[in-house]
Write a structure and sequence with these properties.
Layout (H helix, E strand, L loop, with lengths): L15 E8 L9 H13 L8 E7 L8 E3 L1 E3 L6 H5 L12 E5 L2 H13 L4 E7 L1 H16 L5 E2 L13 H11 L5 H7 E7 L14 H5 L11 E7 L1 H17 L5 E3 L6 E6 L23
Parallel strand pairs: 6-11
Antiparallel strand pairs: 1-2, 1-6, 2-3, 4-5, 5-7, 8-9, 10-11
Length: 294
């Protein structure tokens, strides 16, 4: 899609920025199935903001402010999934569920930004980018909306196949189409577990899994046990990465990352203005919703 925006006549304009904001969870225990169920349930019951953590993305275009946005993927109804686990026997099938999704507005995000920054608990990674990359990121969001992908929410979803996505995988897709998804992020930001097959329920599976069974399992599946591999772009791992990199840069600066003052967010900045913008298609194929448990 050709952009209608021509070159700017302005000089000395700040470079555009693409910012990932990381909102940590109140604390999730991923050590075993029981720990994950118990901690996520407690946070949900206490109505804690971003009970499983969150990621939002912001594009700041200084030459072309009309391209700017701040958004993130989330559920339409944060209570969706409760009855599936409590009464319908989905168990960990809920990890592979196709939730109703939506894109957050800047107004939606304002409360979280204010609350988390007030408690010095908002983290960020800022990319200084060129105008071509900025336009491509904006174009991806426009096309993502146009095809209706945002109506689907979930961690296993593939944004570049128009399947929607969770907040983390959507942020990763934005980086990927911009040529900014370095292997370091792929390795450091994804959490992977082997979900025991007998804990995965739902109508499409033909198995019901009780809440008690989930709370009675104290280990993930081993390499020799029947399992389904699950991965999630985890906000908590993203936060830990920012903390680790800030500490390293303060002791021994690499010259690649800039440690930002602790103001609205605790963050890092990387200058990638000279990185070429990819020319490949924004999307890699059509959606396959049979992949998900319903």
């Amino acid at each position: 899609m050709q952009s209608a925006i021509g070159p700017s006549n302005q000089t000395n304009i700040k470079p555009d920025e693409f910012i990932l904001y990381f909102y940590p969870s109140p604390g999730l225990n991923w050590s075993c199935p029981a720990g994950l169920v118990l901690t996520s349930a407690i946070h949900k019951l206490l109505n804690r903001k971003y009970a499983i953590g969150h990621v939002s993305v912001q594009l700041k275009s200084f030459a072309h402010p009309e391209l700017s946005f701040h958004t993130g993927m989330t559920q339409v109804d944060r209570h969706q999934g409760k009855k599936e686990v409590l009464w319908k026997g989905y168990g960990f099938g809920i990890l592979f569920f196709d939730f109703q999704g939506r894109l957050e507005s800047e107004t939606d995000l304002a409360e979280g930004v204010t609350r988390f920054s007030a408690h010095q608990n908002l983290y960020s990674l800022t990319f200084k980018i060129n105008a071509t990359t900025s336009k491509r990121i904006h174009e991806f969001l426009v096309e993502f909306k146009k095809c209706g992908a945002f109506h689907h929410y979930g961690s296993p979803h593939r944004p570049r196949f128009k399947e929607g996505g969770g907040c983390g995988v959507f942020a990763a897709a934005c980086l990927e189409i911009a040529g900014l998804l370095d292997s370091e992020y792929v390795q450091a930001w994804q959490r992977r577990v082997r979900v025991p097959q007998d804990l995965v329920g739902g109508p499409g599976v033909g198995r019901k899994v009780s809440l008690w069974k989930l709370l009675s399992r104290f280990h993930w599946a081993t390499a020799n046990e029947p399992a389904i591999d699950y991965s999630i772009w985890d906000p908590d791992l993203m936060v830990e990465w920012v903390k680790k990199k800030r500490a390293q840069e303060l002791v021994s600066p690499s010259g690649k990352l800039v440690v930002e003052p602790e103001q609205n967010s605790i963050g890092l900045t990387v200058d990638v203005q000279n990185r070429p913008c990819p020319q490949e298609s924004l999307f890699l194929g059509e959606p396959d919703f049979t992949r998900f448990i319903r």
